[in-house]
Amino acid sequence: MSERGGVPIPGAMPFQVRRLIEMALEEDLAGGDPTTDALIPDQEQGRAEAVVQAPGVLAGAWVFAQVFTTLDPSIRVRLLIADGSTVVPGVKVAEVSGSLASILKAERVALNFLQRMSGIATDTARYVAAVEGLPVRVIDTRKTAPGMRWLDKYAVRMGGGYNHRLALSDGILVKDNHLAVARARGDTFKTVVARLRERASHLLKIQVEVETLEEAIEAVEAGADALLLDQMSLDQMQELVRRYKDRVLLEASGGITLERVRQVAETGVDLISVGALTHSPRALDISLEIHSA
Question: Which tens digits make up the pLDDT trace of 52-70?
Fold first, then answer.
């Protein structure tokens, strides 16, 4: 079982996360573990500690715990640090006790989730810190690891960022390829937006990706609720903020690096989306130190 130990754990695990954990364990253990089976008797008990090896922001501790208890419900996991907390080398994140064989078999899968999610949270926190004091939100994209979307986006929130669409159904975003098809048929921004207004739910906002000032102006005049400013210069973004700040939501996207993000934020845009947060995070170094009973 998993003990809260004063640390919040989501009350109900999303179905897709439980299924993902089961698939990850099956991937690693479908053929068994001949090393552990030969060396560690099933009845031998022990404990382990998850210890941070590099500074960062923690995310996914409850997933780490769930991996162990999914493999072996008799394992006890005590979480010591809450998700979203800043951690430094030497900090103990969790204590695990029970069958040593089960602990060893679940170790890699549990750490894979914890390290990836903490890496995402850590990178996100760096971007959020870089724009501190400015009225802008750092958001993610759908550039997530297949099957990991819910956890990737959860980790972004733990780092202080915000989520864009979780799935295509969460909003309307007319991308460049949509526009290419529409233009080939002779459609304009006005006809595209009109068709979306006619067919889509009134609860969905319409966002249009634009690459030039001319496209942005045309999209706003066509009735778009938000613009995704793709690879635009700082001057272009500033001009659109001057024109439309209180009329449409403005999202800067494309080529946003940690070194450049504050300059982008200073243009006055409302949102800055960073695909790198989830498509190429660097795992936070966290180890599992095993102790015999």
Answer: 999 999 999 999 999 999 9
CB contact set of 245 (below 8 Å; sequence gap of 6+): 268
User: Domain 2-128+282-292 class?
Assistant: alpha beta
* 143 is an active site residue: yes
Q: Kindly report whether the global pTM for this prediction surpasses the value 0.85.
A: yes
**What band does 293 get if pLDDT is binned at 50, 70 and 90?**
low
User: Is residue 12 very low, low, confident or very high in pLDDT (cuts 50, 70, 90)?
Assistant: low
Q: Is 42 a catalytic residue?
A: no
Active site (annotated) includes residue 209: yes
Query: Are 210 and 251 a contacting pair, CB within 8 Å?
Result: no
**One CATH from 3.20.20.70, 3.30.300.70, 3.30.450.20, 3.90.226.10 for 129-279:** 3.20.20.70
Paired strand residues for 207: 173, 226
